[in-house]
Amino acid sequence: MNLRALLTESSNPLILGHQNADPDAICSMVAIRDLYLAIHPDGKATLVCDDVSRLANQVLKHFSIEVAFSDFSEDNHDLVILLDTNSEFQLGTRVRTLLTDPVRTVAIDHHEINPELSSVAEHQIVDSDASSDEGGCGCRAAGNRSSSNPLAVFGLLGILALRSFVRRARTARR
Fold first, then answer.
1. Which CATH class is domain 3-173?
2. Domains of the chain: which residue ranges?
């Protein structure tokens, strides 16, 4: 599988994130969109997730990053890129219906491999040993060393904020 070739051939990609998309999902979605736009400067990529987490919205707002996310798409997309999940059930009932053709679907994820993923995505970049950076993983797979600096900073801050949140939650339970 050559992600760059799939992106080059695509004229209308759909980039999907999981429900309650956290900073690493949002960062990954934006990184893959930016990679697509680097190949197709006048192109359009649609970003869809059921909703964006409060933490991801705070990070986007703090860094004045404006990104349009939809909760569904009626368009016909020639490529679907599934990020930060390898399970269609994490997409939500409505968004899940957008997964219609495994041959034209790419899954990029850092979680444990899901044995049912092949029925959803023929093309897979899944590395459970990787960091929380599907967008960076996808960019490297497409031949780019990294995404833009502001995006890398956004991703790192999102990951750090998420870890801090988890640490505080664990402390509060004790």
1. alpha beta
2. 3-173
